[in-house]
Amino acid sequence: MKHIKSILKLSMISGIAAISVGALSGCGGSNDTSANNALAQASNTQGAFVIIEETAPNQYKIKDQFPSDETRVVLKQLDGTERVLSKEEMDKLIQEEAAKIDNGTSNLTNPNNASMSSGGLSLGETLLASAAGAILGSWIGSKLFNNQNFANQQRGAFSNQSAYQRSVNSFNKAGATTNSGSGAKKSGFFGGGSKATSSTQNSFGS
Hints:
By secondary structure, this protein is an alpha+beta fold. The chain contains 9 helices and 4 strands; from the N terminus they run H-H-E-E-E-E-H-H-H-H-H-H-H.
């Protein structure tokens, strides 16, 4: 528990720094545009710290997320325990969700989604809807690019709209800083694949 709290504290410091710099360099835009591009900036940032909460047995929501120097996902389970998901575990979950997208059974892209209204998505679906999914799952970006169903489910994947809006603001500001400092990047929720790959390597080391 102390280890996870230390990770959270350090990640919040780096995230706040990114947001503060972004606030100085970001330019204004309509609220609708900001919301629609909410997490499109995620794949253009170095990393993301994501907290996923189990709200019911095998149902999950994104409790919070923000830019960070490293990509880490903390899972808060129903029994009160917390743990950091390993890269291997996240890769496996993302690959399983990619297969569901291919065969048309993914709740993230299915217009007749029922899981969301019943309280949450699976762990893999929630991970893929998060900023960590944008970074680690950049290789399946073309399957979700401009998918309106995914955009709708992504918004609903958060525990509440306040958490969603905080994420919108933090990643838009961090993305504005990145773009102004290194030039334009590919657009879309899973922007630059090469950037996402390097971010994964930087985040988790060898």
